[in-house]
Amino acid sequence: MKKIYLKRGKEESLQRFHPWVFSGAISYFDQEPEEGEVVEVYTNNKEFIATGHYQIGSIMVRVLSFQQEPIDQFFYEKRLTTAYDVRKCIGVVGSPSNNTYRLVHGEGDNLPGLVIDIYGKTAVMQAHSVGMHVDRTTIAEALKAVMGTTIENIFYKSETTLPFKADLGQENGFLFGGSSEDIAIENGLKFHVDWLKGQKTGFFVDQRENRSLLEQYAKGRNVLNMFCYTGGFSFYAMRGGAKLVHSVDSSQKAIDLTNANVALNYPNDPRHKAFAEDAFKFLDNMSTPYDLIILDPPAFAKHKDALRNALKGYSRLNQKALEKIQPGGILFTFSCSQVVTKDNFRTAIFTAAAQAKRNVRILHQLHQPADHPINIFHPEGEYLKGLVVYVE
Ligand code: SAH
Known about the structure:
The chain is an alpha/beta fold. It folds into three domains: 64 residues, Archaeosine Trna-guanine Transglycosylase, Chain: A, domain 4 (Roll), CATH 2.30.130; 109 residues, 2-Layer Sandwich (Transcription Regulator spoIIAA); 189 residues, Rossmann fold. Helix content is 28%, strand content 27%. A hairpin with a 4-residue loop joins strand 5 and strand 6. The longest helix is centred in the first third of the chain and has 18 residues. The N and C termini lie far apart (63 Å). The structure holds S-adenosyl-L-homocysteine. The site of S-adenosyl-L-homocysteine has 17 residues, from helix 6.
């Protein structure tokens, strides 16, 4: 294996098991590695410290192991077995009413750059690093070995998640099996999952617990599900006894998916309507007296530099909803921007409430579910945050 030597003192974060080596920490290589190659990292004193995937960019090594060990099928089997055990422990595996969960959450499962979501008998695998792309067939073999007959298909979906510059010629496609059965079941509700063209791995698995909480608040309410994508929150609201449910997304494809999911769960239910419209415009023009609103926008800040503008965006969006929501209304509001901290987000909602001049009580502070675990040595893995507020 090729070796990378760090500058003096730059091993500190690795000694605390943080899994990234930044380009500025590197002193020299014994031989220039290929992108995606497994390398060993040494301190300036030539002591071994980590093994990981090399990639050109600001994060140059993503650590797979703090031991000197081969990164082969056996290694991936060990990691995947632990990840599977964790999901069994959480209780998301093997329930007839829920066949949808995240099996691998990158650094949270000590596999930086890899995401695997399970939809029934299909695993959707996504590489966010060149190294995971290079290792994809080994990982697929390991996954088959660990999951056995519970998995019949492995779909690889990394067209949009890999660095463009690496020019890997990546394509989406099946690495194993090839079923066109695309229905996921989440807490008894059915969803078409578009793993071919959909966002992320085709579905937002991370809102499962928050959707369940929403169900408990829905009875008798007029619900607005803003940024609905596949309509996830809408069907929980309908099951919870909502009076009406309006789903809004600026993408016509998302609205088509939502309507297809209505047909699966509540065919011809007159309570549901879907609108392909921009959120800000819809909130400005709406006249329906909503008393339960969900705001689950895409990440407004993808990088630290965008933080200030993102916070303004969250404030403006939430202000509009808070101005219009009925007295006694409930707002479920989220941010999935990793760079926006819990405190940042709460301040944005504080600003929105002050500007809307509404009395707001925080009822719940929400976060990502247990199948999206956070590696304690990698706090950057915390990304989803939400508040449920009561608006007087
Ligand atoms: N709440 C969804 C996930 C939302 S993802 C769930 O539970 O699955 C964010 C969605 O916001 C995407 O579907 C995207 O099409 C939509 N979107 C992005 N910008 C928008 C805008 N300005 N107005 C309305 N929808 C928007």
